[in-house]
Design brief:
heterodimer; A: 111 residues; alpha/beta; Udp-n-acetylmuramoylalanyl-d-glutamate--2,6- Diaminopimelate Ligase, Chain: A, domain 1; 5-stranded mixed β-sheet; 5 helices; 5 strands; 39% helix; 18% strand; globular; B: 314 residues; alpha+beta; CBS-domain; Heat Shock Protein 90; 3-stranded mixed β-sheet; 12 helices; 10 strands; 43% helix; elongated
Chain lengths: 111, 314
Amino acid sequence: MKLSEIARALDLRAVAGAARLETDVTGGYASDLLSCAMAGAGKGNVWVTLQGHLNVVAVASLNELAAVIVTEGKPVSADTASKAEEEGVVLLQTPLSTYQVIGRLWDLGVK
Amino acid sequence: MTPTEVLKAQELVYELKIGDIMTRRLITVSPETTMREVKQVLRDHRISGLPVMRDEHLVGIVSIEDLIRALEANELDAEVNTYMSSLVRTVGEGESAVRALSAFGRAGVGRLPVVDDDGRLVGILTPGDITRGVLRALERAYHEEELRKYRVRHVFEDIASDRTSLILRYDIPVRDFNRAGRASSQLKQTLVRLGIDPRIVRRVAIVSYEAEMNIVIHSTTGGNLVAEINSELIAVLAYDSGPGIEDVKAAMQPGWSTAPDWIREMGFGAGMGLVNIKATADEMHLDSWPRRGTKLEAVIYLKPGEGKTGHETE
């Protein structure tokens, strides 16, 4: 499934990387611990997390994730957004909780 | 094009500035020019539309469609101002090409006048200009990256020795969360350019990132990350000069951490860093001397069979 279809279905707001929404999503991962995401999230996955700070970008870029979905409307700073843009990382924001996002992703067939 | 190339092309459309891809050679007519002259200008220059200028101001666009209407009405001697479109949408030369693309889509026009910051006409943009601009930029980007890859890969072949190693050193400042991960990103990029298997690159990235973050979070004065790459293995060495780990055995237990709360709130300090490194690398050695410093070495073999297939989750 394409990232753009997911962003539309869940009404996610692209904070960075709006030009990279046509990537294929290979699966998902959820955790607020960066070490866990580093080890557990695979290439092309979406990572659902409450963390919206700068270091999320490094983990997403190193793991070549399709996108990071920042939940519960956690603010993403301008620094973080511009770093993400620079590194080619897609940051999507939503007021939904992590639990709700994962449920909707699962229903969409992202498994 | 492969899917990555398509993505690259999409990015380029965002990056390209209209001013870099527009046609600068400006051929214009005045509102009093006859449609007959317009026909001649279009034919001479093999173009399909012209900006209409009065006293250096853009007042309209006359296109081949307008010419056809004049021909049908048998009014080739009419002035341009009776046939031109005067509601002219313009784009700025500093704007991204993607803006022009959406303007073409919405307005259904075949060309857009380009203006500078002061609103002066500086060029004309057609969808063909965008296609050519993207193709040129794509070719440039491709050649640059290929050339880099070629140079890096041949380092090992061009240097004669019994064993050649490439050593990369990175300085890791303490508590600088804005630059944290920079060393690992640069190391990863180098490995990709060296043509190292992506599965190996991923394992090295996990090891180097965790080691880098440990220095950022825990060291007294920062430290160093050193990667040695040779034809058989990649060794990642991370060291600092304090404070040292009081209980190395405890530090290797999943979930054990001494990170303060504010660091945990950022999602670090889960007590999984060293555990991840151990699970990912083929070999890991951790030495620490309280108050003097910590040295961590992790080795990942390049040849299949020699090490783990990795900590893969895909």
